[in-house]
Specification:
By secondary structure, the chain is low in regular secondary structure. It has a domain of 94 residues. Helix content is 14%, strand content 6%. The protein has 5 helices and 6 strands. The strands form 3 sheets. It has a two-stranded antiparallel ribbon. The protein has a two-stranded antiparallel ribbon with strand order 3-4. The termini are far apart. The structure holds heme C (5 copies). One heme C binds next to helix 3 and helix 4.
Length: 294
Amino acid sequence: MKRHYIISIFTTLVLILFLSSCSDLKKDLPTEESDELQIHVQGWTDTTSANFHGKAIQNNNWDMHVCQSCHGADYTGGISGKSCNICHTAPGGPQNCATCHGMPPAPALDGSTSYTAHGVGAHQIHFIGNGTYSSHSMLCDACHHMPTSIYDPAHISADGRAEVILNDPLANLTSSGITPTPTYDPSSMTCTNTFCHGAWRLPKVGSPDTTMFTTSIMTGASYAPRWNGGPVEKSCGSTTTCHTLPPNGHKPSALTICYTCHGDVMDASGNIKNKAKHINGKIDLAGGVVLNFR
Ligand code: HEC
Ligand code: HEC
Ligand code: HEC
Ligand code: HEC
Ligand code: HEC
């Protein structure tokens, strides 16, 4: 009790000396009439309370420098003697990436776990690329600048929404004179003009088998998927998704026949058998024949 009292007086002085400009903390200062000096407001460690420290940090745009001034730069206690890391046990303590968002983000920053939330969206599908998905997995930096630490200047911005930067070479792949300019619109949550979702063209000129062309060019559908639209956005071969089966300008073929020419990608049931060869910027046929877009 005595030690607590001394620490509290000490840290109160520190607070006044170092943090007098921080209005957030002033309300936490002990009041004259309290019988016990208290640094933090009630409910500070109660996840259900409006005063919970996680919420306070969020309201301060996720800035934890103020906490570090008492709890130590490495969060192991500092002058407060109370370590954050007894609860935040992952490497880096509270600065561990998974403190605030899942990797990939589910749950999202606001706790959402449904794909309808912008923070969850189609992360799992892009990142994991498992069984039912037709694509291989992508790394985070295909769509974001990856911060090396929480205080990377390009990390947390004032709007609280993630920055989507579509610099990935595959999304930007040029074909037959068109260079996609991939864009994400956070208000409609749609992604437009990516090679991956069908912004490509393949001319008859230069083809090893011009008989497969019904026009001078095959075209993808340049579809604009909605990030939080869910499974419907990846349905195969409708006129609205990345390409029809087969694509426009391609000689008609039954789905169970595609494998006779595209055997490295598809099986005899019409399923993608090798995801690494689908949406990879190449034209994969059978027997290891790989062509470039032109
Ligand atoms: C002025 C110094 C000071 C600042 C700034 C400060 N703390 Fe503390 N904190 C303490 C002291 C001293 C204790 C131990 C006494 C207490 O619980 O009131 C403590 C206790 C805690 C506890 C409870 C630990 C436990 O095991 O019960 C948590 C959680 C905590 N602080 C989080 C934070 C967070 C998060 C911030 C930044 C938003 C922060 N603190 C800022 C001094 C400070
Ligand atoms: C007594 C245990 C305990 C201590 C000590 C503690 N925390 Fe926490 N903290 C939690 C719990 C529990 C959560 C909620 C985790 C969750 O919602 O999954 C949390 C949440 C957070 C969050 C918010 C995560 C989010 O996404 O909302 C931040 C940031 C955070 N703590 C930082 C700190 C800092 C900085 C310190 C030390 C100054 C600290 N914590 C000390 C238990 C603790
Ligand atoms: C295919 C593109 C894509 C990939 C790959 C991707 N993201 Fe995202 N990410 C987005 C989009 C789109 C949003 C939603 C932005 C918005 O509208 O707020 C987002 C949002 C986020 C958010 C904010 C979450 C929230 O709650 O608001 C975080 C954090 C994030 N991404 C981290 C990651 C990490 C970590 C990875 C890798 C594991 C990753 N992203 C991979 C496109 C992507
Ligand atoms: C204290 C909370 C917190 C921690 C810890 C944290 N982030 Fe974030 N992160 C956020 C918030 C908030 C956003 C939303 C972006 C915004 O506001 O611009 C975000 C966004 C992101 C994004 C989306 C792109 C962007 O910058 O907008 C990525 C990727 C990301 N974080 C990766 C990481 C990685 C990797 C780590 C660990 C090195 C990490 N985060 C640690 C809070 C955190
Ligand atoms: C008889 C052989 C044959 C059959 C059967 C066939 N294709 Fe093709 N496909 C080709 C050839 C040849 C090209 C053009 C290659 C070039 O010009 O570089 C092509 C091009 C494509 C392209 C565009 C290039 C790429 O790889 O993205 C797609 C997509 C495609 N085919 C899908 C299908 C689908 C789906 C089926 C079944 C519904 C199918 N094909 C059936 C031979 C065939």
